[in-house]
Amino acid sequence: MTAAVIDPATAVTAGAPVRKTRRARLWRMVRRQPLGTFGAVVLAILAFAAVFAPWIAPFDPTAGDPAALYQPPGPVYWLGTDGFGRDILSRLIYGARISLAVGVGTSLLGVVVGAALGILSAYLGGWVDSLTQRVMDALLAFPMLLIALTMATVLGSSLHNVIIALSIPIIPRAARIARASTLVLNATTFVEAARASGCSDTRIVLRHILPNTVAPLLVIATAYLGLAVVQEAALDYLGAGIQEPASSWGLMMSGSATTLALTAPWIVIFPGIAICLAVLASNLLGDTIRDVFDPKLQRDFPG
């Protein structure tokens, strides 16, 4: 029996349709979800600016020029300067670091902790479920900004404390979603089969329940990313968030929004546009992720 000889040219050609199929699938996704693609591109641009801020920013964001106070947008300072002579564009670029770090860190921390509490609450049931849900009810009784403001005041105004303070209001909302999904999954045949076959509770939760709750949790994490950016800006405006001389979009608006809105509007407009773009992009991306994972819409996204 002779061994089969594989022609390298044939092998390369055989791999081409696979790559072409993937590109066609990606292009089909872009055409059917242009708003979600726009959101992903905007977030990618903001992330790129945040990572490469030292090489992109034209000036030091904390260094002021006394001779260039309140300069309007022009050829030197493209977006103008603030009351300390600091370049608005440079502060916007560096501000993306804090705003995206707060948005991503807050949504991940809140969703992860909330998902863990919700899954364990529904799976264990009994007094654990009752106690956990009463705590979640207590947290849901207060507005998100009030809880975040209280925790930021107690913990302090560092970046890590702001992330913790903003993640606490997200925990009960993520826990409710994870609990609802777990209650449905507990009654499915594959979970009952795994339990009857002698699988441990840890294996059932990690291998059967957790993977099936990722989709709704991913949607809520994307949605709360934009909300966290807004809440962080609100904390900065109220003086309980990031403090000077750090660059933050909310901090850029906190000291000038009321007094300079008419005389130097560029100080307020450009940070506001950055916040709006981040929130809009995260919401559009979250809606697209929801549509992709919705079983009723799977026909629009064939595998």
How would you describe this structure to a colleague?
The protein has 303 residues and is an all-alpha fold. The chain has a single domain (51-61, 74-300), classed as MetI-like fold. Helix content is 72%, strand content 0%. It has helices spanning 8-32, 34-51, 53-56, 88-124, 126-140, 144-155, 159-167, 170-186, 189-196, 201-238, 249-254, 266-293. Helix 8 (170-186) runs antiparallel to helix 10 (201-238). The longest helix has 38 residues, at 201-238.
Topology:
Layout: H1 8-32, H2 34-51, H3 53-56, H4 88-124, H5 126-140, H6 144-155, H7 159-167, H8 170-186, H9 189-196, H10 201-238, H11 249-254, H12 266-293
Helix pairs in contact: 2-4, 2-12, 4-5, 4-7, 4-8, 4-10, 5-8, 6-7, 8-10, 9-10, 10-12
Beta-strand content bin? under 5%
Q: Indicate the low-confidence ranges by residue numbers.
A: 1-6, 8-15, 299-303
Radius of gyration: 24 Å
Sheet bearing the most strands, described? none
Q: What is the CATH first-level class name?
A: Mainly Alpha
Q: What helical percentage do the residues reach?
A: over 70%
Number of domains: 1
Observed structural traits:
single chain, 303 residues, mainly alpha, MetI-like fold, 12 helices, globular, disordered C terminus
Summarize the structure.
The protein is an all-alpha fold and 303 residues long. The protein is built from 12 helices and no strands.
